[in-house]
Amino acid sequence: MRRGTADPSLGSETQRKRDFTTVTALTLSTAGAATLRADAVVVGIAKGTGPKGGLVVAPGAEAVDKAFGGKLAGVLETLGASGAEGEATKVPSPSGLKAPVVLAVGLGTAPAKDEAFATEVLRSAAGSAARALTGTKKAAFALPVEAAEDVAAIAEGALLGAYAFTAYQDGGKGAKAPLAEIALIGAKPRDKAHKAAAERAIALAAELNRARDLVNTPPNDLYPESFAAVATAAGKEHGVKVQVLDEKALTKGGYGGILGVGVGSANGPRLVRIGYTHPQAAKTLAFVGKGITYDSGGISLKPAGHNETMKCDMAGAAAVFAAVVTAARLGLKVNVTGWLALAENMPSGTATRPGDVLRMYSGKTVEVLNTDAEGRLVLADALAKASEEKPDAIVDVATLTGAMMMALGSRTFGVMANDDAFRTAVHETAEEAGEQSWPMPLPADLRKGMDSPTADIANMGERMGGGLVAGLFLKEFVGEGITWAHLDIAGPAYNEGAPFGYTPKGGTGSAVRTLVRLAERTADGELG
Prior knowledge:
Layout lengths: L11 H8 L5 E5 L10 E8 L7 E3 L4 H6 L4 H7 L9 E5 L8 E9 L9 H14 L5 E5 L5 H14 L19 E5 L6 H25 L7 H15 L2 E5 L1 H7 L2 H7 L7 E7 L7 E12 L19 H16 L4 E11 L11 E3 L5 E3 L7 H13 L5 E6 L3 H7 L4 E5 L2 H14 L3 E3 L17 E2 L7 H10 L7 E6 L5 E2 L10 E2 L4 H12 L5
Parallel strand pairs: 1-7, 2-5, 2-6, 6-7, 10-11, 10-14, 13-17, 14-18, 15-16
Antiparallel strand pairs: 2-3, 4-5, 8-9, 9-11, 12-13, 15-18, 19-20
């Protein structure tokens, strides 16, 4: 019996809860901040830049400030508010406001007179406000709105901030549900650009939050077969074609990398292809995700203290899955294919050993020197398979190396590529989407460290620059002439610290927004 289905108490009920996480409702309201009936009204405050400094009330909150007799900033200063980004301060509302509570969220330093607040500042502030309003039914957001980009940022931040993973909690006394409804004031419901921005935010947040759910799901409930089932169900729901290769098909097809990683587990591996097509598409993108549903390290067992969060090692596959479904929901004029390389890396009598040689799907042989360098093995097979379809570009996403965390910290992912212009484009796209990234090189001299006396290549090389070595390994399996980029999201995929902005503790949905924005730019003819 498969370990993932052995306990009926963790079966269909938690599956239903995970697949149908409640999504916060969002509306564009024509009502004023003072007259809208809500449980709280959110306003922005910033640090003044004049000679006297002090707090200033951000645009959008004029009616609320008027209800305070023009003294809202002074009241907040008295309470210790500084206007720092993400800072949230609650005050009781005076007469004249329908909402009983005012939540002032910091926006940092006020921009120059003729400039607007950066979209990422608004996105983060909206997320902080939504988190601060956990347990609240309805909130009116009266943050600065000057363009559709502001509507998108506020809506996205609020919806991502109003997230909680509660599938395994009994909802007992004292438990608070996320903010249930958001009314965005200042946006125009009849404006096509504003409406489209809100609809995009709703679709993106729903799928990104589903990716977070998958990352947060414990590995006894999320294993390759059950992940594939989630993808299959989503495909039926959104008209996306899903194909699943099980152990028998993987063996017949010669997928030695995926099989080599999954052979030690009672839960067999899977390769899932999820494809969205548009009849007017001129370009095709392939996204490849590392989906190690649990990583013990295999025979090269991880030391104590390094196993507890390894359910997150499938975050790359979750991001790819979410991005393809989002592209389908948005009806983007681009073909997008996602490849989910799913396996569970476990030690057992059947597990791959250090020193074993695997014959990969591409035909190359790999000497496995460390079974904990398994992500590159499953990705290698998926990259080779994806290359056969000759896409215009391939982007893989993976929680691949601790070395990348050492280099870039816990909030920034690395970008490597076989084309400098594409690497720059991916980096710029990530920054535009609000995700921190940094372009990294693929030094040719590091390739020699992976030379093997036994096989075509080893799965390990020099210790220093390990994240770059992993990128060089993957490059070997990309089809000739295909533009490719590699995103190492090991740092930002799982937040072990306190929540911040719109980022919760646990699974973050890292890279989803970058992939979706890449698809949009490709559909618009900006890339390729």
